[in-house]
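User: Hey, quick favor. My workstation is busy. Could you predict this chain's structure for me?
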Amino acid sequence: MRVLFTGGGTGGHFFPNIAVIRELKRIAKESHILSLELFYIGPDDFGKEILQEENVAFVRIKSGKIRRYFSLYNLLDSFRTFAAVLQAVWNLFFIMPDIIFSKGGFGAFPVVVAAIVFHIPLIIHESDSIPGKVNIFSTRFAKRIGVAFGGAEKFFPKEKTALIGVPIRKRILGGNKDEAREHFGIMTDLPVVGIIGASQGAQRINEAAIDVLPEITNEFEVIHQTGEQNYKDVMGEARVMLESGFPERYHAFGFLDETRIREFFSASDIIVSRSSGSMIFEIAAWGKPSILIPLGNSAQDHQRKNAYEYAGTGAASVLEESNLTPHLLLAEIKKIIGNPELMRTMGEAAQRFSKIDSAEVIAREIIKLGVHD
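Assistant: No problem, here it is.
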């Protein structure tokens, strides 16, 4: 059986694919499916090394991105998209997978078009409460549709849509809290605030956190994923700010691999984060209280809608980016950590919201359709 995966070139599209790939390999082995071949088509080299480790054949194609505002680049990208569709059709002619799994995003569009051309069964998954344009386009042709948030169900046909959460890599779960704290060099018994943006970090969150570092480290330990491009600047500013604080209580990293992500969640008592669908479901899988700061200019304002749907369960509080100030962030952290009962109820709500079997559900459906369709 040949299975092809695709998605836009971001961690939010890529890592759920990896979660499904790993579950698919596990189930195929248990079911004695010996001829499993896996392929991934994407618009850039994001995650190429991980794909190689998972024995997934990687094909890079060009892709254009249609912006939500007037730009001459839209004209140029329309030609790139056309070229990408031709590339996808060419590659699928030779690969000819039995089934395609698409996470959506601009990088998936050419592959979806090629799937339509060759009448290849298609499964799509939407991680956000407001679907992206590519997944909306794909709806008519998809055999099965998985959604993460209840708010997204109304955008898709009921008869082929299931609420299943976001596929989570099992390797980021588990671990020992004391060992995780030790690995980060946390030597006190103070509560730990975990701050994370996305795979590339979040500048506004970085700025707000840095401006109150002396106050935060006076009461808490901090683990901060800054984004690789931001790491040098953040560390420079942090050194200056912590001349009057506790520099040994601040632990910054540009990027966190799977082991470090597991330790990050294990060690943290509360998470400050953006509100992509993938990040919310990772936080929920760990049952951690959280403060969500939606990206102000996300497509279709999906991060804001994600955040409020999740916060409606009692698992998180939301700070609007337009209202974000350093001391407002500090006050929210102190308010939640200072209330053990609130911490407990938020954690329990997060666990109730989580769906850690999402990757397995998708993998089994891929095998079902791929073998029998």
